[in-house]
Write a structure and sequence with these properties.
By secondary structure, the chain is α/β, with parallel strands linked by helices. The protein is 19% helix and 34% strand. The protein contains three helices and eight strands, in the order βαβββαβαβββ. Strands 1-4-3-2 form a four-stranded mixed β-sheet. It has a four-stranded mixed β-sheet with strand order 5-8-7-6, with helices on one face.
Length: 132
């Protein structure tokens, strides 16, 4: 039996306060929970985005195995093309630089920018990974 929908994804940052200002304040994601200095979670539709302090996740906690990553990660949010310009303006007003814009052969455009930890964030069209 194939696996279903992705339940959660994780990125890493040593500045959880800056991450909350960005993901909640700028992107508007709902904060689901905070795990002291270990991390926090945000609601993304039916999925959860976890932001962890990598120094804390290298220590086992409550039975969860150690984990972590070095370097920048990547995450993409689905965004209809009709909302792209509104989001471009919102990001610019928040002082977030657009790093790249890609026009996809399958149709639609993606905007790429960075979170405060340097992770690559993408606003992607719903057609990007659609089954053919």
């Amino acid at each position: 039996m194939p696996l279903g929908q992705l339940s959660e994804a994780a990125l890493y940052t040593s500045d959880l306060a800056a991450a909350e200002r960005f993901y909640h304040g700028v992107l508007g994601l709902e904060v689901v929970s905070r795990f002291e200095d270990r991390g926090m979670s945000f609601r993304c539709g039916a999925t959860v985005l976890l932001l962890f302090n990598p120094a804390r996740t290298r220590v086992a906690d409550a039975g969860v195995p150690t984990h972590g990553a070095t370097g920048e990660g990547h995450i993409a949010f689905v965004l209809d093309d009709s909302e792209l310009e509104t989001w471009r303006e919102r990001l610019q007003e928040a002082g977030v630089a657009i790093e790249s814009e890609v026009e996809w052969p399958e149709g639609g455009r993606s905007l790429y920018f960075r979170d405060p930890a340097g992770n690559s964030v993408e606003l992607a069209p719903p057609t990007l990974w659609r089954k053919k």
